[in-house]
Amino acid sequence: MVIFSFSDAEEYMIDRLKSVIEKEHHIEYAEIIPKSVLLFSNLEIRLKEREVYRNGKQIPLSNQEFLVFQFLVDHHGWVRTKEEIYNVMYGEETVGMQASI
């Protein structure tokens, strides 16, 4: 198995690879397109722009707030500890963490 990852600017490379792969009948490929916008009933989350909208109005979030929000959305329905949230916010273990979360 080989996995390729390309940025949006390199999308032409994906098209070229797909055209070559399609000519080979013994090779299969799966296209995985990450969602850049998540939609809920009245909530829109734009992952690339790191923006959240509710009823069409932007909710201002700091970078850390957005990281925590995205983490919670990605793990919807799961119980998360404050240590896990801290790790998402600061990218480090919770050694000496204060109870400020």
How do you describe this structure in short?
The protein is an alpha+beta fold and 101 residues long. It is built from three helices and four strands.
Protein described:
The chain has helices spanning 11-23, 63-74, 82-90, and strands at residues 37-39, 43-46, 51-54, 57-59. With 101 residues, the protein is α+β, with helices and mostly antiparallel strands. Strand 1 (37-39) and strand 2 (43-46) form a beta hairpin. The relative contact order is 0.08.
Describe how the helices and strands are arranged.
Elements: H1 11-23, E1 37-39, E2 43-46, E3 51-54, E4 57-59, H2 63-74, H3 82-90
Antiparallel strand pairs: 1-2, 2-3, 3-4
Helix pairs in contact: 2-3
Strand content: 5-15%
Strand order, largest beta sheet = 1-2-3-4
Unreliable sequence segments = none
Helix content: 25-40%
Helical segment tally?
3
**Mean pLDDT over all positions:** 76
Count the beta strands.
4
For the report, how would you describe the main beta sheet? 4 strands, antiparallel
- Specify the structural class: alpha+beta
Rg from C-alpha positions?
19 Å
What structural keywords apply?
single chain; 101 residues; alpha+beta; 4-stranded antiparallel β-sheet; 4 strands; 34% helix; 14% strand
